[in-house]
Design goal:
The protein has 96 residues and is mostly helical. It has one domain. It is 62% helix and 0% strand. The protein is built from three helices and no strands.
């Protein structure tokens, strides 16, 4: 099950990363201030923006894998035999 979780995280983050890369490219193409900074998209501000997006997604993937692959508490697991009994409040009626 862990391999499917890791594969899902990798594929979903790769898809989101490609969307953000396109967002950065389009921003440098259409936003006048950014186009003035890097008109041909080969300048260092453009490369720095792409590198920062890539590093942010590498850090996000690290945290997603480290937090997601921990075992779930017993109360959240799907195996009902291992679940603790819920503390149920017994409502007593006032009927006599």
């Amino acid at each position: 099950m862990k391999i499917f979780t890791l594969a899902h995280l990798a594929i979903s983050l790769a898809g989101i990363l490609s969307g953000f890369v396109v967002l950065v490219v389009q921003s440098f193409f259409y936003v006048p201030v950014l186009k003035a900074i890097a008109p041909t998209q080969n300048e260092s501000p453009f490369k720095l923006a792409q590198l920062s997006v890539l590093l942010a997604f590498i850090i996000a993937r690290f945290f997603a894998v480290s937090f997601r692959t921990r075992p779930l508490p017993l109360a959240l697991q799907s195996n009902p035999e291992k679940r603790p009994e819920p503390n149920r409040l017994r409502i007593q009626s006032n009927k006599q």
